[in-house]
């Protein structure tokens, strides 16, 4: 009888061990699956203007006109409202939003503008008053005021065209031109 009880206990222990091993294998497989999901998940961030005036939406490769308009007005105003002391910092901050394929072209253009501002001690402010969105291009029109010291030297109507690329929900500037 003692042998029968011992065999029964041994059999139960063997079955418990087998069930534990199967559960362990299942848990390891589930963990590996979850880790692979985390690694391959799209980490997406959406850049928004500091002040949101209208509701908008942003998808993987597209966005609403309201989003493009607000971002264009923000970028144009941010870069074009500067002093000789602040222009380098503004360009450096703006560079992270330039599309890689046009990075050198836009950066060189902005650096040339910055050198002219510093050389002539020009401060400027851009005051946008209208924007027109056409697909992923936005034309921002407003008044560009230039100052030497505290004296206003020019005040003229200017339009700037900014074209965007959206990739994985992130916005990049593909062109930034005076029109």
Structural key phrases:
179 residues, alpha+beta, four-stranded antiparallel β-sheet, rod-shaped
Q: Please, could you describe this protein's structure?
A:
With 179 residues, this protein is an alpha+beta fold. Helix content is 45%, strand content 28%. The chain has 4 helices and 4 strands. It has a 4-stranded antiparallel beta sheet, covered by helices on one side. Strand 3 and strand 4 form a beta hairpin. The N and C termini lie far apart (100 Å). The mean pLDDT is 89.
> What level of helicity do the residues show?
40-55%
Radius of gyration: 30 Å
- Report on the biggest sheet: 4 strands, antiparallel
Order of helices and strands: HHHHEEEE
Tell me the distance between the termini. 100 Å
Low-confidence stretches: none
Strand content: 25-35%
- Give the overall silhouette: rod-shaped
Total beta-strand segments:
4
Mean pLDDT: 89
* Number of helical elements: 4
**Order of neighbouring strands in the sheet with most strands:** 1-2-3-4
Which class best fits the helix and strand makeup? alpha+beta
Task: Give a nutshell description of this structure.
The protein is an alpha+beta fold. Helices cover about 45% and strands about 30% of the residues. The chain is built from four helices and four strands; from the N terminus they run H-H-H-H-E-E-E-E.
List the helices and strands and how they pair.
Layout: H1 2-40, H2 65-80, H3 87-95, H4 103-119, E1 122-134, E2 137-148, E3 151-167, E4 170-178
Antiparallel strand pairs: 1-2, 2-3, 3-4
Helix pairs in contact: 3-4
């Amino acid at each position: 009888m003692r042998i029968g009880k011992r065999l029964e206990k041994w059999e139960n222990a063997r079955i418990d061990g087998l069930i534990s091993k199967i559960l362990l294998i299942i848990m390891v497989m589930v963990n590996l699956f979850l880790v692979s999901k985390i690694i391959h998940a799209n980490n997406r961030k959406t850049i928004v203007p500091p002040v949101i005036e209208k509701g908008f939406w942003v998808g993987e490769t597209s966005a609403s006109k309201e989003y493009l308009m607000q971002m264009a007005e923000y970028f144009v105003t941010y870069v074009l409202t500067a002093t000789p002391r602040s222009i380098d910092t503004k360009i450096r901050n703006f560079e992270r939003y330039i599309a890689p394929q046009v990075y050198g072209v836009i950066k060189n253009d902005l650096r040339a503008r910055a050198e002219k501002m510093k050389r002539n001690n020009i401060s400027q402010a851009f005051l946008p008053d209208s924007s027109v969105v056409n697909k992923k291009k936005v034309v921002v029109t407003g008044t560009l005021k230039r100052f030497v010291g505290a004296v206003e030297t020019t005040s003229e109507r200017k339009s700037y065209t900014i074209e965007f690329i959206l990739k994985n929900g992130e916005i990049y500037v593909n062109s930034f031109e005076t029109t």
